[in-house]
Amino acid sequence: MLTLYSFGPGANSMKPMATLYEKGLDFKIRFVDPSKFEQHSDWFKKINPRGQVPALDHDGKIVVESTVICEYLEDAFPDQNPLRPADPYMRAQMRVWTKWVDEYFCWCVSTIGWHYGIRPIAQSMTDEAFEEHLKNVPIPEQKVKWRHARNGFPQELLDEEFRKVRVSAQRLEDTLSRQDYLLESGFSLADICNFAIANGLDRPGGWFNDFVNEKDTPGLIAWLKRVKERPAIAKMFAEAKREELLKDR
Ligand SMILES: N[C@@H](CCC(=O)N[C@@H](CS)C(=O)NCC(=O)O)C(=O)O
Predict the structure, then answer these.
(1) How far is the CA of 214 from the centre of ligand 1 (A)?
(2) What does the angle CA 62 – CA 68 – CA 70 come to, to the nearest 5 degrees?
(3) How close is the Cα of 211 to the center of ligand 1, in Å?
(4) CA–CA separation, 70 vs 205, rounded Å?
């Protein structure tokens, strides 16, 4: 039995969800409601003491860390639509991409998301409620992020993070202007893990339109569309809607 604890098909939560859909595995999604800070609740911290999604429960064994979960699913179900190339050299290239997302790309996009998306939530609380809430956040760096979201991220930091997203978009474009997927061998976890973070960078009128657009990054834009149109990914977006996930609880 596989249960995925998740915020839904976005960012790190999307990586294992897309992997489960692409592999065609039978699984359940347990929606963790960020609007209620369920990721910091005692029941969820028993599953992941770091108070973050995603987390996978496989027959009572808990696996955390989005990319690790994807690799775990490959190891546990190797014959079901493999998403890692068989060739060791190609597989190493795949891991260069997934490591880069986790160490670089994910962080700069996340800061901008917190600045625009979490700020209104952090600012809507009274001082007391905010301090009370922070006591439940287990990761020290996340507490700092919450304080930044409430008080405003320093402009220098935002400028630097925008610069890094621009570098990231260009890095993706360099490869995707030449080939359909990040590895020459075809679709893999490299695409899933990068797509989870890159999806939405091209949103019209969005934060990144200055440098993610048809003129500057046509390969990246075509790849986002190509991945979204894959049957398994289209099915994920159609099924894993917040309202539906809430109904299932
Ligand atoms: N390194 C972790 C990061 C997980 C992570 O950042 N999760 C976010 C959602 S994308 C989260 O739970 N944020 C809520 C919080 O930290 O309070 C992974 O890849 O799984």
Answers:
(1) 30
(2) 95
(3) 26
(4) 32
Task: Please determine, for residue 171, whether its predicted confidence score (pLDDT) is greater than 70.
Answer: yes
Alpha carbon distance 217, 211 (integer Å):
7
Query: 2-6 and 55-58: which strand pairing?
Result: antiparallel
pTM of the model: 0.96
Domain-wise residue ranges, the chain = 2-83+236-247, 88-230
The residue nearest atom 13 of ligand 1, judged by CA position, is 52
The set of residues, in sequence order, having a beta carbon less than 8 Å from that of 82 and lying 6+ positions away, is 74
Fold of 88-230: Glutathione S-transferase Yfyf (Class Pi); Chain A, domain 2 (1.20.1050)
> What per-residue confidence (pLDDT) applies to 249?
62
Cα 97 to Cα 17, 100, 183, 197, distances in angstroms: 18, 5, 9, 12
Position 248 pLDDT exceeds 80: no
Give me the CATH code for the 2-83+236-247 domain, please.
3.40.30.10
Work out the end-to-end distance of the chain between its first and last CA atoms, rounded to an integer number of angstroms: 17
Ligand 1 atom showing the smallest separation from residue 69 Cα: 20
Quick: pLDDT tens for 78-133: 999 999 999 999 999 999 999 999 999 999 999 999 999 899 989 999 999 999 99
Question: What spacing in Å lies between the alpha carbon of 154 and ligand 1's midpoint?
Answer: 22
DSSP-derived secondary structure for 185-215: T-S-HHHHHHHHHHTTTT-TTSTTTTTSSTT
List phi, psi (to 5°) of 30: -110, 105
CB-ligand 1 contact for 7 (6 Å cutoff): yes
